Amino acid sequence: MRLRYLFAASILATAVAAASTTPTLAQQVTLKLHHFVPAQANQQKFWFEPWAKKLEQESGGKLKVEIYPSMQLGGKQPQLYDQAKDGVVDIVWTVAGTTPGRFPRLEVFELPFLSHAIGEKTAQAVWDFYQAYAKDELKDVKPLAVWGFGKGTLFTKDVVIKTPADAKGLKLRASNRQTNDAFALIGAHPQSIPPPGVPEALAKGVVDGVVFPYDAVIPFKLDELTNRVSEFGGDRTFYNTVMLFVMNQAKYDGLPDELKKVIDANSGAALSRDLGRKWDEWDLLGRAAVLKRNTPIHVIDGADLDAWKKATEPIFPTWIEERNKAGDKGAELVKAAQDLVAKYSK
User: Fold this and answer.
1) pTM
2) What is the pLDDT of residues 55-82, one digit of tens each?
3) Contact at 8 Å (CB) between 295 and 222?
């Protein structure tokens, strides 16, 4: 009996010793990343998958990321932020403008012709502004990147939009509150449709056109579903939206310090700038897809561009007054955003 007891004790000690020498298995963490575009989109292939691989390599295999495109884990795109906040998933990529008014200071970059037409420049300005003026707007999550893209472009069916008057009466998809107001000012009928619903809306004639960066052409089949394109000239963009790549705070807080360092090294200002640059690259791919279809592209410039700026200028004092009523100094927020865009435009 004593020999049997000693043998069992020996086996138990060996198992404990083995477990203590294999911390990698014990500490392995799998993060679920949820997003709204198809798996064939640029974001999946050239951002999420390389980013996940980098985290795994730099953590020695202790961090793994499972990627779920096209809202595969349920819900609708405007619910993504709350999914990360509430811990339904670990990480999400979403668009701030699809939840109007929730991130009011960050909205400043969605004012017409404020953001730069080059995504890398806008992205840096957005991150710096977030750090200085809007941290409390994302206090419920761990922000991994906060940025904007470059040039917003009009994609329409059978009608070429050159002046604001050309858009009068058209049903145009708006991606955020400021674009919605801009379309309303020029007499169009703005339609608020989250990105995943755009292909169906175009196919069924619910909208006559949409505003997007060129990067959206391939995932949302804009080259197939529209046949006219209107670009805005100049170095500022008519339309932009702030994008958010965020993580559940409790999930981040529960990671060992060594894994937090891996997350931190692959997020923040550097990632935000890189994403702005990636959008510029993906815009070229989307524009090439449009040209491959022989779709005519009209550049809105000169007097026509001035007309667009003049027509949408009233949005600025309205937004400033809203922020003033909320206790902010609206004009100072606008100037801060403009100064940051100018800083990175040099």
Assistant:
1) 0.90
2) 999 999 999 999 999 999 999 999 999 9
3) no
